[in-house]
Every structure is written in structure tokens, then in C-alpha cells.
Amino acid sequence: MYARRVSMKLKPNSTAEFTQRLEKQVIPMLRKQKGFQDEITFVAPAGTEAFGLSLWDNKESADAYNRGSYAEVTKIMEKLVDGTPRLDTYEVSNSTFHKIHAAAMA
After folding, report:
1. How far apart are CA 65 and CA 61, in angstroms?
2. Is the pLDDT confidence value at 106 over 80?
3. pLDDT at 98 exceeding the cut of 90
4. Per-residue DSSP letters for the chain?
5. What are phi and psi of 86, to 5 degrees?
6. Bridge partners, 42 (sequence order)
7. Rounded to an integer, what distance in angstroms lies between the CA atom of residue 28 and that of residue 43?
8. Which region, left, alpha or beta, applies to residue 89 given φ > 0 means left and ψ of -120 to 50 means alpha?
9. Distance of alpha carbon 67 from alpha carbon 87, whole angstroms
């Protein structure tokens, strides 16, 4: 499993609209992407920062999304985000929810 972490600074008083756009526009789009598994989004208590963690079946699916629909998601959120979101990618080593265990060390 592969993960994409997108972190961003939110503009003042934009948390409610940010959450609404995720629910009504972004998540339905993600569900249509090949290999998409899950999206978990976090917003700091002050509402000034957020990050989304999307889980994919493999790196190729995550990369295909990055080359395709991710630009549209960025456009949907651009009026709510201050600056450019930061993208980091990871291999998932453990997940109790997805029942993933770390590979045995050789």
C-alpha cells in the first residue's frame, strides 16, 4: 500500500468550506480513481493548517492520480489554501485498519 500526504496552510475562516468541498467534490473524484483505497483529512484546532492522507493500492496508482486528477483537486481548493500544498509520499508499513503488517526483516 502507498500513501500520499498533502499538507497545506488554510486561509482564515475557511475550514467549513474546505471540509464541504472535500466531501462533495474531492472524495467522490478520488473514489473514481484506479487503486484508491481511503482518504483521511486532518485540520488543526485553530483551522490554519490541514493535511490529507490518501491511501492507494500501489505506487503506480498514486503516481497516475498525481499526473492526472490531482491538478483538478488543487484547483478546487486553491481559493481556500494559502500558498502551494506540499506533497510527500510513503510506503505504508503498518495499518490496523487495513490489516497491514511490516514485512519481515531478512
Report:
1. 6
2. no
3. no
4. -EEEEEEEEEPTT-HHHHHHHIIIIIHHHHHTSTTEEEEEEEE-TTSSEEEEEEEESSHHHHHHHHHTTHHHHHHHHTTTEEEEEEEEEEE---BTTTTB-PPPP-
5. -100, 130
6. 51
7. 20
8. beta
9. 13
Cell of 73: 483537486
Given this model, what pLDDT does residue 102 score?
57
Mean pLDDT throughout 38-65?
96
Candidates 6, 56, 52; CA nearest to 31 is 56
Cell of 32: 473514481
| Cα–Cα dist 33/56, whole Å | 9
Write down the pTM of the prediction.
0.87
Of the candidates 93, 83, 100, the residue with the CA atom closest to the CA atom of residue 11: 83
User: Taking CA 93 as the corner, what is the angle to CA 36 and CA 88, rounded to the nearest 5 degrees?
Assistant: 60
Confidence grade of residue 94 (pLDDT, cut at 50, 70, 90): confident
